[in-house]
Design a protein that fits this description.
Number of domains of chain B: 1
Low-confidence stretches of chain B: none
Mean pLDDT of chain A: 93
Largest interface: A-B, 42 and 33 residues
Shape of chain B: globular
Strand order of the largest sheet of chain A: 6-7-8-3-9-10
Oligomer: heterodimer
Helix content of chain B: over 70%
Low-confidence stretches of chain A: none
Strand content of chain B: under 5%
Radius of gyration of chain A: 19 Å
Chain lengths: 253, 316
């Protein structure tokens, strides 16, 4: 059964059609790359999956049970879909560790009163949250930076904090919006490794990326979008030679 | 370990104030310090919405007024004593906090500030015009002072001083705990980036309303103490200037820092008294202080240095 199933999803902004009845499915435990020219609707697709944009028509279902198109953002996360953002959206004035701890919000049960009263439950949860957050920072390669203010970290490290924060939610599906944008070649190499390790943990990854040197070796499958539609879908080599893909990227020939 | 540290923190900062009356028995000084203590409560309460959650509230005096009027009405009409009145004042104010928190679901930033400003004015004008219940512009008089067992508070400021100090200590202790808890961190996450917080599983709408409720509860408690101390309350004690003053205290002290807002309240609360000789220029000096503050230390006295960088250069 498909993990994520998107059927005939449309989204218009006034007269502009961001998504024009796109359909696609994502199988569990694979890395799927989403590519396409600027304005093809890739980020809109992510926003529709994670509940940031209400869709006009169509359906988004997750694990066959969750209708993401009818759920609030924080419930979508709790259902198992986490994301990162194209333009970094970390909590700049919080420490790296605190950033990651926010990802655990929906997985812990302490309420406001537990915090005020310092109940044993909340103390145990706090302890667990911070030790797991530290482990996640280690996992993304940021050992020892936990107490740094996130906004002071290097750009590439901030991107890693964002990924660790998303992983803290324990997602089954992780949406990465240009994880390697603005990185130098060696940082990009490490990002490829990291995404592979995430998949090895059993997390399905859907990633938007412009750099073909990253998408092609990393993805098990590539989806090409143009004008809010899916124009090609298949193994990287297959897509690379698709006539319509070449047209979309190089213009009509 | 961490918890005991917080306890000692409250003790260390407030102990000098607990010992102050032993050195200085001047009734006027104690009276001023009691008023400053009420400001400290208000600033710490407003800091929950403005400092932690980043929700600008320009009508905070309304919650102070609701607390004061709740106790006054319950006391005068139903004979409620102070202590249950204190809880009732906080609770009623909190309910209004939840209600005024509702617009924050759709309204952001400056627009929320205008909405809360409107709420503040509506409350004051309502108290001014509901003559039958609130006495209109003449206010309510003959409000009972608190009593502790057989012992009744009197005009003497000393017991009020310790009552307010105890409330400040309790509030500071609970808020410091809150700021290190899951709820506190989630509020800061909302301030930093609401959209990202929402996507990371924080139920932002609910938490914003809770922040408003908590903040209003503290103002309600402060209002009740104020009413019992003055024994007379009138609507003009709760005007827009008070909301702005408390906001200035939070900004001066450093947004999002519990002790910062307390320090800001002490500074701005004492300033008018220290400048009594220059009464005519008081507001001028006050304005100058705020301007220099924004130039030299925009993050506030005890603020976070990162905030300073962003205020100066914008987020990079």
């Amino acid at each position: 059964m498909a993990l994520l199933e998107i059927r005939e999803v449309s989204k218009r902004f006034g007269g502009v059609s961001a998504l024009a009845g796109i359909s696609l499915t994502v199988e569990p435990k694979v890395i799927v790359g989403v590519i396409g020219p600027n304005g093809a609707g890739k980020t809109s697709l992510f926003n529709c999956i994670t509940g940031l944009l209400p869709i006009d028509s169509g359906r988004v279902s997750f694990k066959g049970r969750y209708h993401l198109d009818r759920m609030a953002c924080h419930r979508i996360l709790a259902a198992g879909v986490a994301r990162t953002f194209q333009n970094l959206r970390i909590f700049r004035n919080m420490t790296a560790l605190e950033n990651v701890s926010i990802g655990f919000h929906s997985r812990t049960h302490s309420g406001i009163w537990d915090g005020f009263l310092g109940t044993p439950r909340s103390r145990k949860e706090e302890h667990d949250v911070f030790s797991h957050s530290a482990e996640l920072l280690d996992f993304v390669g940021l050992s020892g930076t936990g107490n740094e203010i996130a906004g002071n970290l290097a750009y590439g490290d901030q991107k890693r904090v964002e990924i660790a924060r998303a992983l803290a939610a324990g997602p089954e599906l992780l949406l990465l919006d240009e994880p390697a944008a603005g990185m130098n070649p060696s940082e990009k190499e490490r990002m490829i490794e990291l995404v592979r390790e995430i998949r090895a943990q059993g997390v399905t990854v859907l990633l938007i990326e412009h750099d073909m040197k990253i998408v092609m070796p990393l993805s098990d499958r590539v989806i090409v979008m143009d004008d809010g539609r899916k124009i090609a879908d298949g193994a990287p080599d297959q897509v690379r030679n698709d006539r319509r893909v070449i047209e979309a990227y190089l213009g009509e020939s | 370990m961490k918890i005991s540290l917080k306890k000692s923190e409250v003790l260390v900062y407030l102990l000098p104030f607990a010992l102050l009356p032993l050195i200085d028995r001047n009734a006027y000084h104690l009276d001023v310090m009691t008023t400053v203590g009420i400001y400290v409560l208000l600033a710490m309460g407003l800091n929950v919405t403005v400092g932690f959650a980043g929700l600008l509230n320009l009508g905070y005096a309304a919650f102070f007024a609701i607390g004061a009027y709740t106790y006054a009405l319950l006391n005068i009409n139903c004979g409620w004593p102070f202590w249950p009145g204190l809880l009732a004042a906080g609770t009623v104010s909190m309910v209004f906090g939840f209600i005024i928190g509702l617009p924050s679901i759709r309204v952001h930033g400056d627009y929320l500030a205008i909405t809360t400003l409107g709420f503040g004015e509506i409350v004051r004008i309502a108290f001014n015009n509901l003559d039958r219940w609130t006495g209109g512009p003449n206010g309510l008089l003959g409000i009972d002072r608190p009593s502790l067992g057989p012992w009744k508070f009197s005009v003497n400021a000393l017991p009020y001083y310790y009552l307010v100090l105890a409330l400040v200590a309790l509030t500071a202790y609970l808020l410091i705990r809150m700021s290190h808890s899951k709820f506190g961190r989630a509020l800061v996450a909302i301030r930093e980036d609401e959209l990202a917080a929402k996507c990371m599983g924080v139920p932002t709408l609910r938490l914003k309303i809770h922040a408003f409720g908590l903040s209003a509860f503290i103002a309600g408690v402060a209002g009740c103490v104020f009413a019992s101390k003055q024994t007379i309350i009138t609507p003009d004690s709760f005007d827009f200037v008070l909301s702005v003053l408390v906001l200035a205290m939070v900004v001066l002290g450093g947004m999002g820092n519990v002790w910062g807002s307390a320090l800001g309240a002490v500074c701005l609360g004492l300033l008018p008294e220290l400048l009594r000789d220059f009464a005519a220029y008081r507001m001028l000096l006050f304005g100058l202080l705020m301007i220099f503050m924004m130039i030299l230390r925009p993050q506030g006295l005890l603020g976070n240095p990162v905030i300073r960088r962003e205020l100066k250069h914008g987020p990079s």
